[in-house]
Amino acid sequence: MVKAKDIVFWIATANFILALALFALTQDQLWLYLLVGSYLLRPTLASFGVKQARVDERQMIIHYRSGNIAYGITNTVALLFAAMNLIEGKSCYLSFIMVVAIGVVVRVLFVIIVSRRFHNTILQNLQFSIRAALTYFRKHLDEWQLQVHYRSGNIAFATDIVMAIAYTIYYAAHNDHTFEMFIGVVMTGLASKALFNVLLVKDYRMAASKMIMGVGLLVALFSSFEAGFNWETLLIISPGLAIAGLGWLAKKYPRVVGSIVLVVTVALLVIIIGKGFRWGQIETALLICGPMVVAAICLFIPDRPSKEIETVESVT
């Protein structure tokens, strides 16, 4: 949680409003990528050591950890797409490999610079970087190494997203449908970071409520953009607002809402896939239905006492 509204907050807010305004005026979805800058601005700056004092330490650790998890998921998706295109004999597989490779290079360089290990051999630098990057060895790292691990992972994640966006714009400009796969890489990375940002707090009922409301508001927002701005828009966005309402009710009636959300998710999945089994539809189904399923499961997990939650968080 940000301790006070500062210049970073206002830059992110202005960027958010600008992205929505440009999209509304031009109906070009590429402008929505400016929203990524608003979302990743503060944790990325904090990873570079900028404006760290303005951020709550516990919340920033959650941002760091979710960024590292999202980094691994993003690389996995990019490599899967690379393998699929390689099997099909398409040369664009190199673009997906480049996304992963440049992220790894940036991470290694950050570790080398921060640790000031310029005098070490390339092999020693690489060994330290890999050890800091692997979550499995986290328990073997001291506090400083753990900070390097977290910060380098977040910077590498931001690099992956920027590279994927650049390739999306490139392939879209050349009318190559490969851009849909890069949209999948971007959306999967951002969605996984947002998802784990909420889950790592370990308050599952609140996490589920936020996820459902977030999905509902996004559905309403994009439905309004597609429909334009008129009186019929209110009717078109009503399903999204209804989903957001379920998220609000989830705090009081978790299991009832969890059951309803599962039914709604199945219905949404049928509607989305029914429009065509293409990459765009598959990505939409994953981004909407995935968090809904996770949220429904969270609503069936019994709440723990607040003292226990605080104890677990202090340990992690």
Q: How would you characterize this protein structure?
A:
The chain is an all-alpha fold. It is 78% helix and 0% strand. It has 13 helices and no strands. The longest helix is centred in the first third of the chain and has 31 residues, at 57-87. The protein is globular, with a radius of gyration of 21 Å. It starts with 6 loop residues before the first helix and ends with a helix. The model is unreliable at 306-316 (pLDDT under 50).
Would you summarize the structure shown here?
The protein has 13 helices and no strands. With 316 residues, the protein is mainly α. Helix 3 packs antiparallel against helix 4, helix 3 runs antiparallel to helix 7 and helix 8 runs antiparallel to helix 10.
User: What is the general shape?
Assistant: globular
Q: Which percent range fits the helix content?
A: over 70%
Cα Rg: 21 Å
Query: Strand count, sense and closure of the main sheet?
Result: none
Beta-strand share of residues? under 5%
Mean of pLDDT = 77
Oligomeric state as shown: single chain
Number of DSSP helical runs: 13
Q: Count of DSSP E strands?
A: 0
Q: Could you tell me how far the N terminus lies from the C terminus, measured between alpha carbons in angstroms?
A: 18 Å
Structural class assignment? mainly alpha
Q: Please write the string of helix (H) and strand (E) elements.
A: HHHHHHHHHHHHH
Uncertain runs: 306-316
